[in-house]
Amino acid sequence: MNGPPPPNPWGDRRRRRVGLLGGSFNPAHAGHRHISLLALARLRLDEVWWMVSPQNPLKPVVGMAPFARRVDLAMRVARHPRIRVTGIEAALGTRFTADTVSVLRRRFPRVRFVWLMGDDNLLQIPRWERWLSIFRSVPVAVFARGSYSLKVLSGLAARRFSHRRAQPRAAGTIAERVPPAWVYLPLRRHAASATEIRRRMAAEKQRSTPFNG
Fold first, then answer.
1. Is residue 9 part of a domain?
2. What contacts 142, CB < 8 A, 6 or more positions away?
3. Residue 17 neighbours by CB under 8 Å, 6+ apart
């Protein structure tokens, strides 16, 4: 196994600051690692957990690699002693982020969790199940992944919690803030994209397939 072991789904009582990076990781790539390293440094986190989702409710099943394969690749990509790769949602039996966060807070009562996401997800989070409860349960750190910050910051979620937004210079305190609390970090964008990786892999597979005509 690469990297540290996954967290115990039954929880523990250790005190630490943990960033939660959820998603399909289909596939995991250097961009996920880039955001995680920035989160460790800028948010003063002790660990980042990559929570590989068995199946994102908002994404199609078609084209989704098997769960075990996605977890295994994520472990290979993470390669860091403070990044833990886990399929904990499968163990918890949770399907929606709001439920996952709720269970984690109960089972890890001394952990200060921070939800990590790209700014594209800040735009679409109002489509998530009980999205308001996520903001009210844990602090949120949003990382700029594109060039459309004005659109992101004028979206529903950003406007709804505009009065609880911390300045980037205070990012290191976000884990200790009482939610709702969030910070938007306009950082250098990483070129890696899961969509582009899948497109390239499909193209390479098509080129390697003999033509039977």
1. no
2. 117, 118, 119, 121, 122, 152, 182, 183, 184, 185
3. 43, 44, 45, 46, 47, 111, 112, 114, 175
Per residue in 170-201, pLDDT (tens digit) is 999 999 999 999 999 987 665 555 455 435 44
pTM summary value: 0.86
Task: Decide if 57 is inside a domain.
Answer: yes
- Asked whether the beta carbons of 55 and 22 are under 8 A apart, the reply is no
The values of phi and psi at residue 102, to 5°, are: -60, -45
**Cα 5-9-10 angle, rounded to 5 deg:** 125
The domain total for the chain is 1
The model's pLDDT over 59-90, given as tens digits with 9 standing for 90+, comes to 767 778 999 999 999 999 999 999 999 999 99
- Closest among 188, 196, 174 to 37, alpha carbons compared: 188
From the number of C-beta atoms within 10 Å of its C-beta (0-12, 13-18, 19+), residue 85 rates as: buried
| CATH number of the domain residue 200 falls in | 3.40.50.620
- Domain around 108: 16-208
